[in-house]
Amino acid sequence: MDYISSRNLRFVLHEVLDLGQLRQLERFQDFDEEAIDFSLDAAKQLADQYLYPIYREMDRNKAYYQDGQVHVLPGVGEGMRAMGEAGWLSANWDFEHNGQQMPLTVHNAGGLIFQAANGNLAAYGFLTTGAANLIRAFGSDDLKATYLEPMAQGRWQGTMALTEPQAGSSLSDITSTYEETEEGHYLIRGQKIYISGGDHTGVENVVHLLLARKKDGPKGVKGVSLFVVPKYLPEAEGQQDNHVTTAGIYGKMGQRGYVAAHLMYGEQGPTRGYLVGEEFSGLRHMFLMMNEARIGTGMMAAGSASAAYYASLKYARERPQGRHPDNKDINAPQVTIIEHADVRRMLLFQKAVVEGSIHLLLQCSLYEDRYRSSGDERAHLLLELLTPVAKSFPAEYGNEAVSTGMQVLGGAGYTDDFPLEQIFRDIRVNSIYEGTTTIHGLDLLGRKVLMQNGLAVRYLNEEFLATVTEATTQPAVAPLATALSSSLQGLQAVMERLLGLARREDARVFLADATVFLDYFGLHVLAWCWLRQATVASRALDTGATVGKPALGDDERAFYRSKLQTARYYFTYVFTRTAGLQRTLLAEERITLDTEPALLV
Ligand SMILES: Cc1cc2nc3c(=O)[nH]c(=O)nc-3n(C[C@H](O)[C@H](O)[C@H](O)COP(=O)(O)OP(=O)(O)OC[C@H]3O[C@@H](n4cnc5c(N)ncnc54)[C@H](O)[C@@H]3O)c2cc1C
Asked: For tag attachment on the chain, is the N or C end more exposed, with fewer CB atoms within 10 Å?
């Protein structure tokens, strides 16, 4: 079952990120290379058994709403409980909460396996972990005692209930309200739309982590607080219906087995909510889950793109069609399409996006591990800066990679005989939810780049330069190092221009091309990832050829050579897009700003 490469995950974790360094921290001392590989193997077995087999079935027998209930395949509940029983929903929690204190980097590597096997099922679990993490971080002891265990076991579903009809990208406009009662809980009223995992028959209860505004309280984010709102009140509260009504579920282009529900609170009776953390800090607290979900959405996109790549690769190796352009002999047998350079161009694009994204996502996870376990502020700032890229690059380029993968299959790619058409539909939403790509462009340029007077950008630049310096010592990759280093001057010029606009002009001018900047910046980040991977691969090939060292086997040589070749492809075919984007970002014309709405006829 080829949907992700375990060898590639081990390469990134051990050889590129040197995850062993985390063992110096007491929290992670048990996670040596063997333990990490064991965890990855266990994740693959679980994904093979519970997730992968029902990926297509979840699409063909999509979730449906009937008589007030949202029905999903029985395999959804079974898969949730299997992930829970194997400890995956709580693996990175503290021992005291029955966790394994697994580094997030390893947990997310396992998550990538689940996402590639079946992102629709993996997402139910991933959301549950994220919601429970909010309770762990900010909830009272009572909330922790009541909710964490059944959520970790996959018996109760967690959700993230933010969006309302008038408040999607603009969360400060939410209007769902809460009122305090004398019994200590709050009464919630309002509606939420598009709530993933919002209701379904695969679990015993649903726990909404919900944002609401104090009734008659201040406008904007100031009046917003965070609540736990269960579908059924837990035993201590009388185990009754909490009047969270499902108005229906959305008919979606993809991810059809992964429910998105329209929910109403307090319409058909009182709905109780329990405050999480401090009152009026709701959005600030929710950012913990949102940041996690952004990396998670990037993982989902990278997982889908990975599954598409291996499906395309398999097809390209088996499908005979045409002959080489220099062979005019009509009697000669057809070649398999992987023999055509242009098919390899498409496959290389898929591979470059998938393996570059996986590296970036695990790099971000490692920054988070360092920050959370040892308070490493540098790691924290780098994580903050890179999160919009880690969400958007796999989503945007993943869309393109899956579309390219469909092209590899020709007509067959468009039919439902092959998984590409489903993956193509499934991956599309990743650039919409968890903040559209635009919102991440605004976050990157309007907030992250400016943080602490540009300190995060300076740190990232130091990381870029360290990688360039190291790569320069390896003749096989030195030209790639030169390409990145000269493009960094262009990046500098673009930033100076944009920051100049920020000083001289209003925010409308400064932020007009934030999405273009995100693309441009992200291509540099991925160039850094590919340069690092290529440097490690080049060194491994050299070491394998050193007298006294064991020679590399054929498979290993092919693995490292494939890394080098994909890096070269990235720099020649993908990174070169930065030249056009740079011209756009430096252009004096203000095309989009000057196109008044009336001109769009
Ligand atoms: C399948 C699915 C599942 C979802 N799951 C959840 C969930 O579990 N929980 C949850 O809370 N939400 C969920 N959402 C909601 C999702 O996060 C929102 O759809 C998303 O944030 C966009 O909001 P919107 O749909 O209101 O679009 P809008 O905010 O109306 O945006 C429309 C367009 O305008 C652009 N735009 C908006 N504001 C600006 C601006 N200030 N500057 C420039 N451009 C702007 C956007 O980029 C976009 O292109 C889900 C959505 C879908 C489709």
From this structure: C
